[in-house]
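As the next step, I selected for study a record pairing a protein sequence with its backbone structure tokens, which the following lines show:
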Amino acid sequence: MSTLLSKMLRPALVVAFTGFTMVSAAQAEKFTLHGASQFDERHAFTRLMRKFEQLTKLYYSGEHEVEFIMHLNSELGLEKDYVAYMNQGLSVDYAVASPSHMSTFSKLATVLDPPMLYRDAGHWSKVLASDVLKPVVDDIYKRADILLLGYGGGGVRHLIVNKPVTNMAEIKKVPIRVMGAPIQTKLFDAFGMSPNVIAYSEVYNAIQTGVIDAAENEAAGIRQMKFYEVGPNISLTAHSITVRPLAISGKTLRKLPEDLQVAIIQAGKDAGTYGRVTELTEGSGIMSEMEKSGKLKTVMFTERDKLIAAATPVLKEYFNDLGQSALYDAIQAVK
């Protein structure tokens, strides 16, 4: 068993297996795990989970059968629902979800990918490949009973606007949809915009009806949700590189044989790496494809340095308020 699993799960394993009828080698069981995705098969998050399923079966050599069932296209709701289900140990066993949706349980979840935290893709990749974020993993497991297996993401997020914006003056007071974590609201407010928390499924209609004039997302999400139909101008702010953890319910994991748990943890880590590389490398191509087909128009944001300047004190204050100034410094120290 890995060091991480030993430290985090062994006390819970003792409790979980008390009164649990263990099968002998001759009594092989079938374990069925349910995954969920808001998207279709071609989306990077879904492919990450498919890789996780494949690698788990490859790494697991025990006597039990493992079956994976994936629920696509929001069949079981949205990411916030998946997080609630995993916390309860019901309906969804594993999923890729935005850290913002885990903030209901763990405030530390919100520090994984706020705008302007990572200097560039290289810095982002090195942080996620290290153990720097372990305090966040531990806190989410403790408070949400959800274990982060690996880190997907890699989507470079830009502004989706119903008119071209290229500088700070042009985004001033523009109503924009943001995710529910308070740090998102604080940062977009610092950029001079007017942030509004709106459910992801309602963004299209909110722009279409004039409730907001902007949103922000990465290329894969823009394509999947057809945001370009209502916000055809993409301002290339590159204000965030996403971190989208692949997570599993602690209640589910503890019910599984120990050797299967080990396989799942390793498969999750490796699938996360696969997902990051996939989304990071494909994003620019997806955006270019949509622009060439006339679905959207990209414009350069000429004052990204001012976004960084506005974000830095907000980020430092936010980490400090959470008692995590050392974590912020550790993230920035990664070279």
